[in-house]
Specification:
It is a single chain. Helix 1 packs parallel to helix 2. By secondary structure, the protein is α+β, with helices and mostly antiparallel strands. A hairpin with a 5-residue loop joins strand 1 and strand 2. It contains four helices and five strands, in the order H-E-E-E-E-H-H-E-H. It has a five-stranded mixed beta sheet. The chain is globular.
Length: 114
């Protein structure tokens, strides 16, 4: 059990390190990341900061089949559509929130249509 806890903590630390609030400007989102069989990792993502809070009520939940998939999609260059079609990723939130999430951790500025 300690290894799963350590892996979850390392995952959380990687997200904190990769977070780039400037990429999402004034967007604010409360999310839960469900990775494999770990308890959901709840956090608020905004242009100003990333905060982890287990008591948070998420607006959207993102489901990943494994930590490797989650990191590849969130912080890497993994193809979200491929992961979705292969049932390795899904979301219960709107499509816009997926782009906010990817921008925040990939460091790619979010372009919201007018």
């Amino acid at each position: 059990m300690a290894n799963a806890r350590d892996a979850r903590e390392e995952f959380r630390n990687t997200l904190a390190t990769r977070f780039d609030g400037a990429a999402i400007a004034d967007q604010d989102l409360r999310i839960a990341l469900t990775v494999g069989d770990w308890p959901p990792l709840k956090c608020s993502v905004s242009g100003a900061r990333l905060d982890f809070d287990d008591a948070l009520v998420p607006e959207a939940t993102f489901f990943f089949d494994s930590p490797a998939t989650a990191l590849d999609l969130l912080c890497g260059d993994g193809d979200v559509m491929d992961a979705f079609m292969e049932e390795r990723f899904r979301s219960d939130g709107g499509l816009t929130w997926v782009f906010v999430l990817l921008s925040a951790f990939r460091g790619v500025p979010l372009e919201v249509p007018p």
